[in-house]
Amino acid sequence: MKNRIGTTDVSITPITLGAWAIGGAMWGGNEEADSIGAIKTSIDNGITSIDTAPIYGMGYSEELVGKAIRGYDRSKLQILTKFGMVWDQAKGDYAFERNDPSGITRKVYKYGGYGNAIKEVEASLKRLQTDYIDLIQLHWPDSTTPISETMEAMQKMLDEGKVRAIGVCNYNGAQLAEAEQTVKLASDQVPYSMLKRNIEKDVVPYALANGLSVIAYSPMERGLLTGKYNAASQFAADDHRSNYFKQFDMDKVARLTTRLTEMAAGYQASIAQLVLAWTAHQPAVAAALAGARNAKQAEENAGALRLELAEADRTQLGEWLAGSSFLL
């Protein structure tokens, strides 16, 4: 089963493999064999859609995806990637510093300029070893470039057949409306989870009213909703989760994960599978991104494709989440 994104003819799996962590950067590294195993196992278990980006390992994640999909029927796979996070030029909005694969510190900028968009997509096609991308997405808004300019670049890619659909990431409702004065978008990839539901205020209503799909990233909140981590958890120095988790009220999260674990047991499922299934079935959501660093995690994610939540449990989950704030 797949869900169509927007009004396009591109459909993606409700659980889509998120390939950020396999890029290694900010996640404490990963073994190449494990990463390729995660991709292949995902595909073999029905997750045929893969979301990556140049900034994930500064090209490394895309290269791994390209290696892993060799031998598969490309027409049966859906490759989603992005552009607009650059480290080879000082243009756009400064974002952060990051070490490249050789250990050199690079300044990263959010930049959606027309020429840069075209250049980045050509580079992605080479790394992915494919002649088209199913969904191309602007990674972050760039205040220094008119939205129309970036949209015109993506429309050119679409017209040339280099991409099959165009979308954005991290856009709010107003930005979506402005972008759609130039193009028809297929999707908006935004953070969405049981712990962060602010997109329900503007993005989801816009999507429902305008035939646009939401792709939810971080539905597991970087692993926090697996129940594996707590306030005492320790991470490697370069693992971003040591800071990311500080925004949450860990006591409230612990109470929620305890309830989720009990509900998941009733389905003989893991808490991760329950959370992914809930996310994928929310209004306007076409897919929930799920990261996997090895074959075992990929196989577990695929189990969420087959998990159907009872209406009573959907209602119960809504009651647990209603009016709750898990942020400090």
Question: How would you characterize this protein structure?
Answer:
Helices cover 35% and strands 17% of the residues. It is built from 11 helices and 13 strands. It is globular and about 50 Å long. It starts with a strand and ends in a 7-residue tail after the last helix.
General shape: globular
Biggest pleated-sheet summary: 8 strands, parallel, barrel
Provide the spatial order of strands within the biggest beta sheet: 3-4-5-9-10-11-12-13
> Averaged pLDDT, please?
94
Report how far apart the termini are. Answer: 38 Å
Helix content: 25-40%
Total number of helices = 11
Strand content: 15-25%
Give the topology string: H per helix, E per strand: EEEHEHEEEEHEHEHEHEHHHEHH
The chain-level structural class is: alpha/beta
Please count the beta strands (DSSP E, at least 2 residues each): 13
Computed Rg: 19 Å
- Can you tell me the residue ranges where pLDDT is under 50 for at least 5 consecutive residues? none
